[in-house]
Amino acid sequence: MNEDVNILGGGISGLACAIILRKNGHDVNVYEKRSSIGARFNGDWQGLENWSEKIDVLEQIRSYAIDTSSFDYTSLSKLDIHYSNKIRTLQQKNACYFLKRGNCEECLDTNLCEQAQKLGVNIHFNSSPDESTPIHVNATGPKNKQILAKGIKFTTKHEDVYKMGFGSEFAKGFYSYLVIRDGHGTISTVFHHEDAQHSNKYLQNTVDYFSKYLDKGDLETGHKFGGYGAFEIKDSFYDENGAMLIGEAAGFQDYLWGFGMRYAFQSGYFAARSIMYGESYSDLIKDNLLQKMRHSKRNRSIFETMGPLAYPLAYYALSSTKKPLKLLNLIYR
Ligand SMILES: Cc1cc2nc3c(=O)[nH]c(=O)nc-3n(C[C@H](O)[C@H](O)[C@H](O)COP(=O)(O)OP(=O)(O)OC[C@H]3O[C@@H](n4cnc5c(N)ncnc54)[C@H](O)[C@@H]3O)c2cc1C
């Protein structure tokens, strides 16, 4: 008989790992310190990127035996990029999938939690295991704050809108965005932790710029949110107690743009494989994720080295190609 597998943290990575293990016959406990799943998020839209690998990301998740048919997502096929009052529309089928994050009914986190519970994963809320419980997988999310986000989530009657803004005035070194789908909107700016003191200015400039695409009074319905993310290429993928580190607890995140959800699913899957088949977790990460991480770090260094030139270059490169996804895929190789 297998011993129970104990996972600390009930975010995407922990739940993905738990679902895969449970489907493989393991008894699994997830210890979540908060009172609900997804409490770190606020029902804001997040993009599951579909460019860093050739395989479609939803197909990849399904290949791990996670059910995506009940995910409430929208596929992004048209994105307006704004730079210096110029706008270009990128068209590319399934460039990314937008999902809501948080503890709302239609949120990804809730969906994964339901999948796990239906299979019989024991999720212990408001709970930390006692000291005698061995932890096999550490999925506790980011510890360091390299990338910050600040935004407003709101409701609206406005039609769907997908917009990304480049420019130091609203997101130095990164980007800002406005996403409206089915009456739910998110407006946000993403920036480096070193620029935290400018966060209010970035958000205000983003709101001022994108407000022409909102209906009057939309933001009055809103809730402000903030968050942070970690990027780190670690020497070891185990914590001090020997548990496998997955998701952002391991620093797994795309460093160019700050996308961590795909890494969370992937690393959850590799940890499960290590438990199911005795494969080395370190080798799985080295063989499958490390190169992509290094390339995202290289891409960020190039972006930062170019300084003010980076935005026009990224804007024109992305908007002049007929295949933006292919271009993005190239830079991760
Ligand atoms: C505002 C914002 C916007 C983002 N937008 C995007 C995006 O558009 N696309 C994208 O791909 N990524 C995005 N990200 C990053 C993405 O959300 C994360 O990379 C992803 O959620 C990481 O999943 P995880 O499972 O590693 O960690 P988390 O989702 O953070 O889950 C960790 C869980 O562990 C729990 N926990 C922590 N410590 C303990 C403990 N000691 N004991 C028990 N439980 C514990 C926490 O409560 C939490 O539930 C964004 C992040 C933020 C903050």
Describe the structure.
- The chain is α/β, with parallel strands linked by helices.
- It folds into 2 domains: 5-72 and 103-143 and 234-299, 3-Layer(bba) Sandwich (FAD/NAD(P)-binding domain), CATH 3.50.50.60; 147-229, no CATH class.
- Helix content is 32%, strand content 26%.
- It has an 8-stranded mixed beta sheet with strand order 3-5-4-9-10-11-8-12.
- α1 (12-23) links the parallel β1 and β2 (28-31).
- α1 (12-23) runs parallel beside α3.
- It is globular, with a radius of gyration of 20 Å.
- 44% of the residues are buried.
- The model has no long low-confidence stretch (mean pLDDT 93).
- The structure holds flavin-adenine dinucleotide (FAD).
- Flavin-adenine dinucleotide is lined by residues 8-14, 31-34, 40, 46-49, 128, 139-141, 149, 227-229, 247-249, 253, 259-262, 264.
